[in-house]
Amino acid sequence: MNSLSDTIKYVWRKADLVLLGIIGVTTLYGLVLVATATNYTGEHRDVIVQAAAAGLGLVAYFFFSVVDVEHFSEKWKWFFLFNVGFILLLLTPLGIEKYGNRSWLYASWMPTSIQPAEIVKLTYTVLLAKQVAWFQENRKMRGLDSLFWPAAHAGFMFVLIVVVSSDAGSALVYLVIYAGMAFAAGLRWYWFAAGFGTAGVGITALVVLDKVPSHMMERFKVLLDHSYDPKGVGWQQTQGLMALGSGGVFGQGLFNGVQTQSTNPSSLPERQTDFIFCVAGEELGLVGCVAIIILEALIIYRCFRTARMARSPMESLVCVGFATMLMFQTIENIGMCLFVMPVIGLTLPFFSSGGSSVLTLYAAMGIVSGIRKRMLPEWLRN
């Protein structure tokens, strides 16, 4: 009994309780939004799954708070094999297709579906941080090899996910994590310029040669002209923007949103996932939306601050990777709801419904928590 008590006290001391408090409040807010977003169905499955994922996530948070991620990363070969193998499971009978992407694993004996691309973000970020940190320490991020090998790693994962699942949105996050780490590690600006330039030329060539899928082209066309196909490709964002704007400053009230509570198929789509921000806008108004942005910003700030205090370049880059991931997904999801970014299926961290996403986020923040508790003392920092 004393041993268990001592273990609990040890884990409790190792955790960043401030970060845990912020994500706890964020999760509770998200549960309320998921509850109201799914209220019109008369079912509570999404809320139960979200709450259960948060409960498991809490365990993962404390577990990873005591794990030395730098020591853990020494098994990098197993990390890489796990990343590739878990994604390839989508090609087995366990892989199922939803929303046009083969991104989930499910079987009758599983309580809920699992999204491998979400889970793999954890091990990928740690592995990539180890790789970038090596080049930072041994090559000072100079020379072509400092760019090529980490970029090849990120590019390989991007291509693998797109080819296996057709989920370009989730795959894009992997590239963004690399870009954030490379910038933090000191990669020269001209490499970024060259990368963006090459990507621009490549995308232009694909458009000119008519090699871009029509549905992807239409998602960008509708951003430039909101009147383009408002009942087709522009329908989702049009409805989302209408719901978001109808809430005013204080909203129409929880469980009272006209579109959020409507059973009409033409009302707000994917309201518990992609367009959860619009639910907040309609029912809680500008105040509710600002609260979401503040909470996400606090979590991201905590990650970046921990990165500055980390005891090693690798641990610092892990924090930067997770912060970049959160920042990109938040900006993309909110931008999608504001009709200024394309719909690519990225969820709003800690708010959108999704067990795999919530569990991964808690585990990622647990890793950040552990890094903070092992940080260098003040007198040893630069």
Largest sheet: 2 strands, antiparallel
Q: Pick out the low-confidence regions.
A: none
H/I helix tally: 14
Global shape: globular
Radius of gyration from CA coordinates: 21 Å
Strand content: under 5%
Proportion in helices: 55-70%
Mean pLDDT, all residues: 89
Distance between the termini: 43 Å
Number of domains: 1
* Beta strand count: 2
Topology order in helix (H) and strand (E) letters = HHHHHEEHHHHHHHHH
Classify the secondary structure makeup into a structural class: mainly alpha
Strand order of the largest sheet: 1-2
Short characterization:
This protein has 382 residues and is an all-alpha fold.
Helix-strand layout with pairing:
Elements: H1 2-14, H2 17-37, H3 45-65, H4 69-72, H5 76-88, E1 95-98, E2 101-105, H6 116-138, H7 144-165, H8 168-185, H9 189-208, H10 214-224, H11 235-246, H12 276-309, H13 313-337, H14 355-373
Antiparallel strand pairs: 1-2
Helix pairs in contact: 2-3, 2-12, 2-14, 3-14, 5-6, 5-7, 6-7, 6-8, 6-13, 6-14, 7-8, 8-13, 11-12, 12-13, 12-14, 13-14
